[in-house]
Amino acid sequence: MTEEKAPVRVEISYKTVIFSTLFLIGLWFIIQIREIIILVFLSIILLSALLKPVEWLNSKGVPRVLSVLFVYILVIAFISTVIGIIVPPLISQTSDLVSRLPQIIETINDFLVFHQIPVEDFSQLIARQLQSFAGNLIAISKTIFSSIFLLLTILVFTFYLLLEWKKFVRLISSPFSGKSEKKISGIIIKVEKGLGKWVRGQLTLSVIVGVLIYIGLRILGIPYAVPLALVAGILEIVPIIGPIVSAIPAVLVGLTIAPVMGLAVAALFLIVQQLENNLIVPMVMSKVVGLQPPIIIIALLIGAKLAGIGGAFLAVPIIVVSKIIIQEILTEDQVLEDDLKED
């Protein structure tokens, strides 16, 4: 007769139960406050862009509050100047486009019919798109107002972070003691510096894209090349949708000249976008943040897949922060291992 095997007993200690419960509660809490976490993360990204000039002014004897205010005034003045350069010619060109829109639609429609392209009446297609846009206008307005509120919140929070950055670092590291406290402070400072490099990389990308678009528009003979290139450079910071939105005013300006010119401008933006996605972004970011181009491409794709535009925007800085934290942990483990070997 075969002996019956005793049933396997699985014992779970009370410590495991407590740890699992606390872990699940912590995970639930993080999910509940994810918007606040993202807001803080965005504020730290903005802080990393502004901290160096604030620290420089402060080191020259300018009070901290005045240093922060001065940097904020410079940023606001720069944004206002850019808007002043971009908006007037775009309004003028848009009004010109609206007055010529029926003629442009008719020309495109005749072109499609002449070449027997199986597309429904172009004027009806445009009318339906305009109706759809008008129907979504309320939703678009709500999104714009919520984005403005979010931006103001980030600016205010970043203002206070710039004022009390050292105290903030001490506050985060205060629950720890000894070497652990110094380690946490070091990680926070390195994260800020890493994000600063990423911001500088984004600015470099904006300049490169803006210059490429300007050169292309000048070659095509498109008027208002400077403001249109500025729009393209500024919207470069918005992944996926930024290049598309920046192409719209340029294509409209091209359409006021000729339908073919509008198509040429669209082709220009498409070529620059492909160069940007497959060559410029990986090369610039790999040099600035020390990540290999394939990793950056994969991070952008995963971020876009998980959270759309916001995910693509935050993908690289999240990878940068994760890399710094993992390196610090591995370095600490290596040091402990070496100490044990010496003992």
Automatic annotation (TrEMBL):
Keyword rRNA-binding part of the UniProt annotation: no
Main location per the UniProt record: membrane
Alphabetical UniProt keywords: Cell membrane, Membrane, Transmembrane, Transmembrane helix, Transport
Pfam families: AI-2E_transport (PF01594)
Organism domain of life: Bacteria
Transmembrane segments: 12-30, 36-54, 66-91, 144-163, 203-220, 226-245, 252-275, 295-321
InterPro entries referenced in this protein's UniProt entry, alphabetically: AI-2E-like
Name assigned to this protein: AI-2E family transporter
Organism encoding this protein: Candidatus Curtissbacteria bacterium RIFCSPHIGHO2_01_FULL_40_12
